[in-house]
Request: fold
Amino acid sequence: MELNLLTFIYLFASVTFIVGLKMLSHPDSARNGNRVAAFGMTLAILGTIFLYEKEGARLGNYQWIFGGILIGAVVGTLAAKRVKMTAMPEMVSLFNGMGGACAALISLVEFDHSAVKGFLPIIVLGLVIGSVSFAGSIIAWGKLNGSIKDFSFKGQHLFNILLLGVIVTLASYLIIFLPASAFFIFYTIFFLSLLYGVFFVFPIGGADMPVVISLLNSFTGVAAACGGFLYDNKVMLTGGILVGAAGTLLTILMCKAMNRSLTNVLLGSFGGAGKTNASAGAAVGTHKEISLSDTAVLMSYATKVYIVPGYGLAVAQAQHACHELEKLLESKGVDVKYAIHPVAGRMPGHMNVLLAEADVPYEKLLEMEQANDEFSTTDVVLVLGANDVVNPAAKSDTSSPIYGMPILDVELAKHVIVNKRSMKPGYAGIENELFFRSKTSMLFGDAKKVLQDLVAEIKNL
Amino acid sequence: MEQLLSWISQHQEILYIVMLMVFVGIEVIGRVPSVLHTPLMSGANAIHGVVIIGAIIVMGKAAPTNYLALILGFIAVIVGTLNVVGGFVVTDRMLEMFSKKKK
Reply:
């Protein structure tokens, strides 16, 4: 009876995962979708704790299980609640790494139990994928919060392929021959997989981290499915494979939004490509600055103003100041809208989330294609801490690492005002010709401070 | 060859699930707008936290004297819970921002 109930719970949970994921892909139902999946997950976890039995034996060590869950739940909730909006991507990466670690640990323990010899290939697979996902996610996390710098050396790709080759060879040797030194080989594979995860992510540019995290996310899904195979547990299997497949597709969709291929992201690291660009991107000239009062006049007497937000806005936490400026201009009869590039910020959707936090109405956020049709009739475009997404080199310079990425054609507008903290290049590390064009004026300073001063200035007009 | 075929037929049920889930996974998110890429990734991230069930089983099966299994299992339960709870909470926070827009 109890086992049948557990089977039903697992079936139900699998359905919630699928429905939840489906709902997550529509803006209106997304939040409920997440909750549906969370509900299913909770049932599955409770069901496992209280109903699971194998060959008549129930689970033991309850104090350990509850202790672990308690610690994980408290730490997880606090971390997730406290994290700033700007640091969300790092957090996702970190949680993903935890899942990978969990899968790897399961394999480590199960290898000890010699009873499951027939499942050795699955155990090894779970170990390798879980470890790669764990190590890679931690590196991605470090890169996003800036504690780990881009790093690559000559022959890195060859090194990675060799490393992977060694892992595969050792794993095959272990599975086929099961030598006396199996324990040693198993831990060597574990260590090498961690190393591979590190070197897999190391050379990839920080701006591409979202794609990498999404890919590692699907890896962890597969690692979880390995656990499902091992325990003949259908809910782990469905959940894992579902995420593995959806995550892979999502990774490809993300690459498409940047008009790049996955191989290009993984191999054509920004770090390496930047070198060739240094010579090609010599078209730098002088930029001109604009004062706050001039900006205030220009904007309040415009009929149509577009704001292009970028990561700088997120870093400065200037979304509320930005909304205030927008309301003030609207009250003066200026038509203000936001042009959102699909990959503005550190993650797709980053800007939407940020602006929604400041209560900016959804209708004011225009997607790239819509906005590009509007720029030619726009008086002023205010670029707030965005850089690569408005870089004309993406259209004209074939040697540019971002060549081919669709951009916001802010140049079509009459005036472009760019707010940045300094003339330093953006995250991709490439110069932006836009800043030197005759239409462009630079407004230096921290986005939040500049916007607040601008609001004050306009009020004083 | 013989071995492989018998392995396949032995695990055919699981292999069918794998195959079908691959298609379901691709199908359900096929039309996601780019705005939702991040929350969707985060939500999927929480779902693969289902690996926690494996950790619970490992933990629950461990003999009380097998300290290696106990310690590794305990860590596995902690990190697995982190993945599940943190994943869902972060996703909810992201989507909370979206729901406001309907005002």
